[in-house]
Design a protein that fits this description.
The complex is a heterodimer of chains A (387) and B (319).
Chain A: E1 3-5, H1 7-18, E2 22-24, H2 32-43, E3 50-52, H3 57-70, E4 74-78, H4 80-95, E5 101-106, H5 120-124, E6 131-134, H6 138-153, E7 161-166, E8 175-177, H7 182-189, E9 206-207, H8 216-227, H9 230-245, E10 253-256, E11 263-267, H10 271-284, E12 289-294, E13 296-298, H11 302-309, E14 314-319, H12 329-339, E15 346-351, H13 361-370, E16 381-382
Parallel strand pairs in A: 2-3, 2-4, 4-5, 5-7, 6-7, 11-12, 11-14, 14-15, 15-16
Antiparallel strand pairs in A: 1-8, 6-13, 10-12
Helix pairs in contact in A: 1-2, 1-6, 3-4, 6-9, 10-13, 11-12
Chain B: H1 4-13, H2 29-38, E1 44-47, H3 52-57, E2 69-70, H4 77-94, E3 102-108, H5 110-114, H6 117-126, E4 130-136, H7 176-181, E5 187-192, H8 196-206, E6 212-218, H9 222-225, H10 232-241, E7 248-251, E8 254-257, H11 268-271, H12 286-310
Parallel strand pairs in B: 1-2, 1-3, 3-4, 4-6, 5-6
Antiparallel strand pairs in B: 5-7, 7-8
Helix pairs in contact in B: 2-8, 4-6
Classes of the chains: A alpha/beta (387), B alpha/beta (319).
Bound molecules: thiamine diphosphate, iron/sulfur cluster and magnesium ion.
């Protein structure tokens, strides 16, 4: 049944259907509503979840790690400064191979403090070992929360996963969402399989051992092997979900009007919605433009990105965060994806939307129009900035 | 109350912390860990933050732990055990787990008084059912004897060295036991490695209570205190006899000093045996500082006596 709900409500609904054994969460704008909705479910007694109302995000993820190692299904959510505070534990959750799914309401990092959207929090977690998915809409936030749970718990993966949804643009905007029936969602997610649970007192295990130079490297190599299993799991789970829910998802990226295009934008998250309108408007005028939206940001789908962009002449990669002193993170990934191809498009890097600065259809159209004239170099270009 | 025989019998049946660790010769930590674990009859799950015990017991691919054990980071043992206990509650509710399991944290003073205080306070306030044991050796030993807020005044630490301008640690130690007691949790106590039966009794009494239980155990470190390797128990005993480390408990808000030394042994007797205080006996101002140290010990003892008078009626304990 179709319903109108915010991105937050969509994520909370998915969490209610997943019904984790433990949710440990700490509020922060713009994520707080997820914590609040879930607290309501617990206080109304409609889920069996043990809610741990922790005193910080660091403790939120630490409690999740303890609970996941204990043998429970666990979830959490955060944003911005909260992500920054817990990032130490995120690396640990990945190193300990714990399938914890975390919604990240994307928000700028301080200073100056700012509660609005950009992707600096997601980029901070980029190398943590958690897989990351970006969502364009509240519907995607709902769908990919369910999908992420399955990927995280996949026997060959067993890693934490982050579901990114743009702060305010998605978290607080009411959209039409079509959730699955509870029973269907529960069946899709399935029962939780604990691996070496701490609570199995008959078979004591040591979790979080320390490793010296004689083992550390091999253990980290094994962790890389685990994240390399994500793409296969992603495709399989996505396919199963599409069969069930009939959504238009196919693969790691959403290639929009790219087949016969000569120019395109590459974006993450809700900006894709705006970009599709810009592309459609220019197409009306006969311009051969398109868009690549990246769903799976980590592990980065180099092959799929190269495949989708290889035939173009000009590509603008839009990063919603500065990687200070370097090109944007998404740009660097796209450049690496295209490097091995003989014919490759000219690449330009744009920075946009920091701290919630609006990005408009017109601005995106302008980027596509000016693109053939822009010299592809290592200079960052800025959209919507007063200089 | 468990006798030495019961403790030994339990260990014979199930060695929970095995000798396969690399703690220093003469370290007091394993005595505390074994005594606490042997004093609990139920199955246990243990969490430890980063520190000497963690590093010395869990080098991959080996382990000294024969019970389920988890380490996550330095500042979060309180949160980790909260999560483990929450998982247990949820899985009991669904029927996935039926047996009774007890939860224990062994953490250093750094992981408790300093960087882990917030996570501990949160876990206490939320009322998780667990026993938190602080292995208080009064400094960051694992990383090379740096000062902590448990380090006593004047003691030399590598981040509070004995310099010409500032001789050792200028600040007094934090009274963490009272901070924990202020959370009004069911059971709070101080114990010392020299008084193992008292420690075992405290564990047994603590485990009768639902909710958070806290034990601050003076756990001597010959390396960091710069005392002979075979001195851990002597050092601990002197700390108790000089009233530097009172053995007391706060049960449901009621105070009881478990041991009141008959004679007043000056704290100097304890200070003079440790390398970390050696400068006090060489420096011309040393006697003044020792007098201040004694005054602080006396004040604290008086404070506890008054608390005992005002809030008395605790269970158990031996005089
Ligand atoms: C966030 C963080 N900061 C610092 C450290 C370094 N570190 C590890 S153990 C430790 C000291 C441990 O001291 P304590 O808790 O008293 O335990 P002990 O080794 O004395 O038994 C420090 C500073 C760390 N691992 N993590
Ligand atoms: S440094 Fe001290 S606490 Fe650490 S193992 Fe050695 S004696 Fe024990
Ligand atoms: Mg210490």
């Amino acid at each position: 049944m179709r319903k109108v709900m915010t991105g937050h409500k969509a994520v909370a609904e998915a969490m209610r259907q997943i019904e984790p054994d433990v949710v440990a969460v700490y509020p922060i704008t713009p994520q707080s509503e997820i914590a609040e909705y879930y607290a309501e479910y617990v206080h109304d007694g409609i889920v069996h979840t043990e809610l741990v109302p922790v005193e910080s995000e660091h403790s939120a993820l630490s409690a999740c790690v303890g609970a996941a190692a204990a043998g429970a299904r666990v979830m959490t959510a955060t944003s911005s400064q909260g992500l920054a505070l817990l990032v130490e534990v995120l690396y640990i959750a990945a190193g300990m191979r714990l399938p914890i799914v975390m919604a990240l309401a994307n928000r700028a990092l301080s200073a100056p403090i700012n509660i609005h959207c950009d992707h600096s929090d997601a980029y901070l977690a980029r190398d943590s070992g958690a897989f990351q998915i970006f969502c364009e809409s509240a519907q995607e936030a709902y769908d990919y929360t369910l999908i992420a749970q399955r990927i995280a718990e996949h026997e060959r993966v067993r890693l934490p996963g982050i579901v990114n949804l743009d702060g305010f643009a998605l978290t607080h905007t009411a959209q039409v969402v079509e959730p699955l029936e509870d029973a269907v969602a529960k069946e899709f997610v399935g029962p939780f399989q604990a691996v070496y649970p701490l609570l199995d007192v008959e078979k004591p295990v040591t979790w979080g051992a320390f490793a010296m130079p004689d083992y550390y490297f091999e253990l980290k190599r094994a962790q890389q092997a685990a994240i390399e299993e994500v793409p296969a799991a992603f495709l399989a789970v996505q396919k199963e979900f599409v069969r069930l829910a009939g959504r238009p998802y196919a693969g790691f990226v959403d290639a929009y009007r790219l087949e016969d295009a000569d120019r395109a934008l590459v974006v993450l998250g809700s900006t894709a919605g705006t970009a599709k309108v810009a592309v459609d408007a220019l197409r009306e005028k006969g311009e051969k433009v398109g868009l690549l939206k990246v769903w799976l940001f980590r592990p980065f789908p180099y092959g799929a990105v190269a495949e989708a962009l290889g035939h173009l002449r000009h590509v603008a990669v839009l990063d919603r965060a500065i990687s200070f002193g370097a090109m944007g993170a998404l740009y660097s990934d796209v450049a690496a994806a295209l490097y091995r191809r003989k014919d490759r498009p000219a690449l330009v890097n744009y920075i946009y939307g920091l701290g919630g600065r609006d990005i408009t259809v017109e601005q995106l159209q302008n980027v596509l129009v000016e693109l053939p004239k822009v010299r592809p170099d290592e200079a960052l270009r800025y959209i919507g900035l007063r200089e | 109350m468990p006798s030495i025989k019961t403790l030994a019998q339990r260990e014979e049946k199930e060695v929970r912390f095995t000798p396969g660790h690399t703690l220093c010769a003469g370290c007091a930590e394993p005595m505390v860990v074994r005594t606490v674990l042997n004093a609990i009859a139920d199955p246990v799950v243990v969490a430890s933050p980063t520190g000497c015990l963690e590093v010395a017991s869990s080098r991959f691919p080996g382990t000294a732990w024969n019970v389920p054990w988890i380490h996550v980071a330095f500042e979060n043992a309180g949160a980790v055990i909260s999560g483990v206990e929450a998982a247990y509650k949820a899985l009991r509710r669904t029927g996935a787990i039926r047996r009774r399991i007890r939860f224990v944290v062994f953490a250093g003073d750094g992981g408790t008084y300093d960087i882990g205080l917030q996570a501990l306070s949160g876990a206490l306030e939320r009322g998780h059912d667990f026993l938190y044991v602080c292995l208080n050796n009064e400094a960051y030993m694992n990383t090379g004897v740096q000062r902590s807020s448990a380090t006593p005044a004047c003691a030399a630490a590598t981040t509070a060295p004995v310099g010409d301008a500032i001789p050792g640690k200028p600040q007094d130690r934090k009274d963490l036991t009272e901070i924990v007691a202020a959370h009004h949790v069911p059971y709070v106590a101080q114990a010392a490695v020299s008084h193992l039966i008292d420690l075992a009794n405290k564990v047994e009494r603590a485990m009768k209570h639902e909710g958070p239980k806290f034990l601050n155990v003076l756990t001597t470190c010959p390396l960091g205190w710069r005392t002979p390797r075979d001195s851990a128990l002597v050092q601990s005993k002197l700390a108790v006899e000089t009233r530097y480390w009172p053995l007391y408990e706060v049960v449901e808000g009621k105070y009881k000093i478990n041991y009141k030394p008959k004679e007043r042994v000056p704290v100097e007797e304890w200070l003079k045996t440790q390398g970390r205080f050696r400068h006090l006996f060489r420096d011309p101002k040393g006697q003044e500082r020792i007098a201040e140290f004694q005054a602080a010990v006396d004040r604290h003892w008086e404070y506890l006596l008054r608390k005992e008078t005002c809030f008395s009626g605790g269970e158990g304990g031996q005089g």
